[in-house]
Amino acid sequence: MDSQRILDDLPMRPLQVVAVCLCIALNALDGFDVLAISFAGPGIAADWGITMTELGVVLTMELVGMAVGSVLLGSFADGLGRRPIILGCLVTMALGMFAAASVTTIGWLLVVRFVTGLGIGGMLATINAMVAEYSNAKRRSFNIALMATGYPIGVIVGGSIASALLVHFDWRSVFVLGGVMTSTLIPLVWFLMPESIAHLAERRGADALTKINATLKRMGHDVLDALPVVDRVTPSRGWRDLFSPALVRVTVILTLTYLAHIMTFYFILKWIPKLVVDMEFSASSAGGVLVWANVGGAIGSVILGVLSHRYRVKHLVLVALFGSFVMVNVFGLGQADLAGLALVSAIAGFFTNSAIVGLYALFAESYPTHLRAGGTGFVIGTGRAGAVVGPVVAGYLFDSGFELSTVSFAMAIGSIVALIALAFLKDRPAQVAED
Hints:
Blueprint: H1 3-9, H2 14-48, H3 52-80, H4 82-100, H5 106-134, H6 140-168, H7 172-192, H8 197-203, H9 208-219, H10 239-242, H11 248-278, H12 283-307, H13 313-332, H14 338-366, H15 369-399, H16 404-422
Helix pairs in contact: 2-3, 2-5, 2-6, 2-7, 2-11, 2-12, 3-4, 3-5, 3-15, 4-5, 4-7, 5-6, 5-15, 6-7, 6-12, 6-14, 8-9, 11-12, 11-13, 11-14, 11-15, 11-16, 12-14, 13-14, 13-16, 14-15, 15-16
């Protein structure tokens, strides 16, 4: 039995569970680090007297970095390995968060958030591949859904603490919190997360067998006498493989779907705090509403993961995309009190985040090992154009005098475009050969 069959067919061992749990924690960092600027946004706007359009640019700058980081670092993870990229991204994120707490101008804040986004983007592409490769076949889709649950959990836990901090301190405290949280995971990853066995077997370096057996032994699995024999080795051509005849349809559809929906997703997550403050609630109350949006997102992630045992992930995502369109429009109608805002935001978060979770699972099942991180990174990175454009367009529409209901309808269209695009994806996407 080769190493992949061992991991696919046998029950998951403690080290595999630890690796998946660490990826959940890493995604939680991604969630909080991305949304830190949303918690800090009202304070930044008040301190520096910037317009809604300018704030929209500030809110999206780390998303630009995420787009670049996802594409470049995701591709590097397929070559250099998952573990070194994860560690490098953690260091970048920690330094970026601490730096954001000390800047005094918009220009420097934009630079720092871009650099932080590089780490966040590379991390997201790499941990998606890592979870897929450390899970057995039975639990793979569910574990990817759990990994994606880390994102809203990070916002819930970090956001709850940040909301409390904002009562006593200014917006800079949010970034200090993010830097501390990020730094604590560096030693845990260093000591507890080995390199992906699937990646080692695919790259077939001179010491691949030794490293694979060392990890298998730590897991409690049987070791290998030799690497599995393959009939031929197809050299990876990087991004060109993503547009090979077997994968071009998958790549185009997934990229368009992700790009369109992420515009809707980040409209909700980026603008909730500012919109709630504009409704004359406090900044700490605004953070609480955003936390509830992510409570709904976390619940949606788990439910989608459970349902993935019985239903095709694609079909679940289609339902979530339609629910996203409906609830973002409901959010745009406004609510009379804070409790109503929190409830509607939670339901909107349930659907918007469920669709993202399902797409991550589709990325993992659509690409083979030697393209998994790079393919995921390409789709996420290219699709981040929607994340960048969404909040900026919303800010422009607000500055142009449009009401919340009109802006919400315009931004919700992204989920409908995504639904139409995904409907053309084959239920069992073709893959290029791995041998």
